[in-house]
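Our preliminary data section would be incomplete without showing what the modeling component actually yields. Below, a chain of 149 amino acids is followed by its predicted structure, encoded as tokens that our downstream tools consume directly.
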Amino acid sequence: QCFMLPQSLGVIGGKPNSAHYFIGYVGEELIYLDPHTTQPAVEPCEDGQVPDETYHCQHPPCRMHICELDPSIAVGFFCRTEDEFDDWCMRIRRLTCKRGGLPMFELVDSQPAHMVSIDALNLTPDFSDSDRLERFFDSEDEEFEILSL
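Predicted structure:
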């Protein structure tokens, strides 16, 4: 149902070692594009028009059965204004109530007590935000490392 929201940007996910950008669905199949495919930057014509072919994919969209999707996904939404955000919140709450069962995510009016407070990241005043995050999430048993640019 997230694909049907006007604020939807799609979903990033896929299978292990294979990322996809999902843009919609048909029945039980998800429609996706390969996010690793790039196109050259577009130079507008002198009249400000952009060539039509720049809006078309080099490779056609593919399909994947929803049961093949890895559960680690990122769902994207974009709200231009506060009114659009309020509309998105209303739609999400409606979906959560309508569907029953466990929602993929939910909205809350205040921070749950069990969540780490953002103030907990303020270890000392002489660290940058990225240093605080790195120290907060630092663990020797992780298979990744946070890099600063």
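The beta strands are 8-15, 18-26, 29-33, 62-65, 74-77. The chain has one domain: 2-109. Preliminary results of this kind motivate Aim 1 of the renewal.
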